[in-house]
Amino acid sequence: MTVLTSALDTAGPDFRANREAMLARLAALDAEHAKALAGGGDKYVARHRGRGKLLARERIELLLDPDTPFLELSPLAAWGSDYTVGASLVTGIGVVEGVECLITANDPTVRGGASNPWSLKKALRANDIALANRLPCISLVESGGADLPSQKEIFIPGGAIFRDLTRLSAAGIPTVAVVFGNSTAGGAYIPGMSDHVIMVKERAKVFLGGPPLVKMATGEESDDESLGGAEMHARTSGLADYFAADEHDALRQARRVVARLNHRKAYGDPGPAEPPKYDAEELLGIVPGDLKSPFDPREVIARVVDTSDFDEFKPLYGTSLATGWATLHGYPVGILANARGVLFSEESQKAAQFIQLANQRDIPLLFLHNTTGYMVGKEYEQGGIIKHGAMMINAVSNSRVPHLSVLMGASYGAGHYGMCGRAYDPRFLFAWPSAKSAVMGPQQLAGVLSIVARQSAAAKGQPYDDEADAALRAMVEQQIESESLPMFLSGRLYDDGVIDPRDTRTVLGLCLSAIHTAPYEGARGGFGVFRM
Questions:
Q1: In three state form, how does the secondary structure of 31-50 look?
Q2: Rounded Cα–Cα distance for residues 280 and 286 (Å)
Q3: Burial of 34 by CB count in 10 Å (0-12 exposed, 13-18 middle, 19+ buried)?
Q4: Alpha-carbon gap, residue 53 to 181, rounded angstroms
Q5: What is the distance between the alpha carbons of residues 260 and 490, in angstroms, rounded to a whole number?
Q6: SS3 assignment, position 431
């Protein structure tokens, strides 16, 4: 039998302590998500509603098929920066007329929907997801363009937004723009470069330069409507393909556009799938509050995959890494999950072989992170840990099947790379509130700096200040601890969101469904040179 048997003691003190720690982290996460939901705050939300307009997420809700989920991406973008959490933009994946689409919506309650550097990063990430997974892209536009005080960080890289729209269209991936308000200056190219454009009567304003700029540049007197109003673009310029009476009508028309796209998934519906044998609620009590304490990732797998059925590969070899085959919402997956943190040579070689097998079979890979990195020390260096770790990273780098990553616990050092961290282009990467990621643990990093400083002083024949050293170590530990937390990393878009562990199966299922919209084929070779 390959159905996993759980050894989790849900009545024990460890489980209860882990659960309480996770619930506390989730409460803190909810508070930060609430900031994104609040947009520009009560004053600007009230002003927006007073103009008879819908909020960004209300527009998305009306666009989506009834009772279907919306997988919001990067909701904590800009967290810890000087900009509003969420970065004045909502992005995510939802179903419109039965078609999975990548949806972006400006939040006009935040500085009129103007784009700041984090908005740009978030929009570019959304475009990457649309292109990789062949998802039609719907832009719900109401933005004054670039946040001018930060133009130096936006103007040069911002051109990639328009490049991406043309590349999506060239790849046969539909792009739809629904303009609810301002779409000025560079923002005018969003509808200008979209395949289908809908504009709202007496609301949409699309022009390269508004009346004041036109007056300054040419001396010409003009008004918003004649210069860039929806009716003008529908009757005269031809930029608007559809003329909507109001916002509800615009969203209705957007749904009809999608219904006529004839956009099909590359792979059919996998069909119904049996849920896991164990309750997802129990995922709250698996990861210890102190990540130095190990946990068995099979307990997570048992609560995520279909019927808790997991065919483990090489279970007696390289036991710090669990590898095996399963299905998730009916989709086949190969899973690599850190079992005891450290990756040794055996785990690295096992992972490389497993990744090659997944590519031979065209099976997507799921990486479940809890690693402190590759093992160090004389014995392991002499045993070839560098070349074996490189073998695993080589395999991950050149694998062509889709990758999904979930950071459950630690994800430190090159172990983060070998387990398909952000730099290795997983299709999607999410973190649990318990996750931490950095070049190494805070204590280890502070200790290394202390040893180097002490050796430097000794080499110069100078006395070493132990009191200053203790203060330095404490400061470094605090800095690295704060910079390794999931909200900090999510704010910089190093993941696609911090999720409740109980939602893991649903989130991964939505991602796998999106992945199967685009055709893919595993690498049949081309892994480069494996140092043996």
A1: HHHHHHHHCCCHHHHHHHHH
A2: 11
A3: exposed
A4: 9
A5: 36
A6: strand
